[in-house]
Amino acid sequence: MKLLFSEFKLKNLHLKNRIVMAPMCMYSAAEDSLFTPWHYVHYLTRSLGGVGAIILEATAVVAEGRITEGDLGFYQDEQIERFRNLVAAAHENQTAVGIQLAHAGRKSRTKGKIFAPSPLPYPGMNTPEKLTLEGIKAIIKAFGRAAKRAEQAGFDFIEIHAAHGYLINQFLSPLTNKRTDEYGRERSLFLKEVIEEVRKYWPKEKALWVRVSAEEYDPLGNHPQDIVRILKELSGIDLIDVSSGGVTDFKVNSYPAYQIPYSETIKKLANLPTAAGGLITDAKQAETVLKEGKADLIYFGRELLRNPYFPLHAAKALGTEIIWPKQYIRAK
Ligand SMILES: Cc1cc2nc3c(=O)[nH]c(=O)nc-3n(C[C@H](O)[C@H](O)[C@H](O)COP(=O)(O)O)c2cc1C
After folding, report:
1. CB count in 10 Å sphere of residue 152
2. 329: exposed, middle or buried (Cβ count in 10 Å: 0-12, 13-18, 19+)
3. How many domains does the chain have?
4. Which candidate, 175, 295, 181, places its Cα nearest to that of 240?
């Protein structure tokens, strides 16, 4: 058995393999940011294709925290039933489903006011309003309410989106957080309070993942060692999903597996399991990352958009036997 197709257990989360569908905004929500039959087909196809886990795209905890009007939201009770149907269907294929809870902060393109830790615009975008303490508390509460709904929908894990220059990352980064109050003096405080609030509603036996930008590609921004220091100050996190960039408009020189060293650093120094990826399209490369102990899970984004059945092909490429969906056995 190859590592990519070995089981992974984290609290009561049980993955049949280590292939994770990366969270990817599809900007296709119905009015009121609701989940549609299109999303259902999109995600369930990857489940049939054999992924061990799906991370649902960035889903906003408040309407003004959406990146666009087409983002999914989780501030509506109506959404619970729609998500529950997807989760139940994915479970029939032994795929675990998580949801990425997000707030875009200054990178929101929605109509109306936008908010950030400090009134600094992302290049080419509107200037956000500086969040008041009341505004901060209200967003933290909204993360908690979304976590409660996630539990009601039966999600297997939650991923808090603290990467790519969105709101939580804006608090974490010295480039975007110029506050002089406690949220500026302790840049991890906002994330800490979000985790504490989520944990009030999200059972302790269930896994909580956090996605981080481990490298901000600016000498004055966060680097992997800074993220390690921040993570050591926090508790309640079970796994780190390692990404990078997005705080500034710097064009990253990316190539297959370019983010793997960040995962290696976080796994070793923060002593937490990691999911890693970025331009990985090859089963053998994924297998090598796992074999070298640089990550526990591998996420695939665009490869799964091109090829929803990637895991079935990956098993063949690695010469490993896996269970196909019974409806498709004749195509094996
Ligand atoms: C269409 C698209 C939408 C994305 N949306 C999100 C998102 O909602 N949340 C997130 O954390 N990353 C998002 N990403 C980044 C991916 O999760 C992933 O980290 C990135 O695409 C690198 O992996 P890949 O090279 O395997 O695609 C998105 C990427 C793409 C291509």
Report:
1. 14
2. exposed
3. 1
4. 295
> How does strand 96-102 pair with strand 157-162?
parallel
Ligand 1 pocket test: pick from 20, 24, 39 the residue with the most ligand atoms within 8 Å of its Cβ: 24
Helix extents (H) in the chain: 37-48, 78-91, 133-153, 167-172, 182-185, 189-201, 224-233, 260-269, 283-291, 302-306, 310-317
Q: How many helices (H) and strands (E) does the chain have?
A: 11, 13
Give the pair of three-digit tokens for residue 231: 């993570």
Q: Does residue 98's CB lie within 6 angstroms of at least one atom of ligand 1?
A: no
Range of the domain at 262: 3-331
Q: pLDDT 10s per residue in the chain (332 long)?
A: 899 999 999 999 999 999 999 999 999 999 999 999 999 999 999 999 999 999 999 999 999 999 999 999 999 999 999 999 999 999 999 999 999 999 999 999 999 999 999 999 999 999 999 999 999 999 999 999 999 999 999 999 999 999 999 999 999 999 999 999 999 999 999 999 999 999 999 999 999 999 999 999 999 999 999 999 999 999 999 999 999 999 999 999 999 999 999 999 999 999 999 999 999 999 999 999 999 999 999 999 999 999 999 999 999 999 999 999 999 999 99
Q: Which of 20, 25, 56 is the best mutation target for the ligand 1 pocket, counting ligand atoms within 8 Å of the beta carbon and taking the most? A: 25
Q: What is the dihedral of CA 188, 279, 285, 207, to 10 degrees?
A: 40
**CATH number, residue 107:** 3.20.20.70
Alpha-carbon separation of residue 53 from 98, 159, 180, 263, 273 (angstroms): 7, 12, 40, 19, 15
Which of 104, 223, 240, 125 lies closest to 175, judged by CA?
223
Does the C-beta of 169 come closer than 6 Å to ligand 1? no
Count of alpha carbons within 13 Å of 268, Cβ hemisphere only? 11
Structure tokens at 71: 């983002």
Provide the token pair at 87.
């989760």
CB 56 within 8 A of CB 23: yes
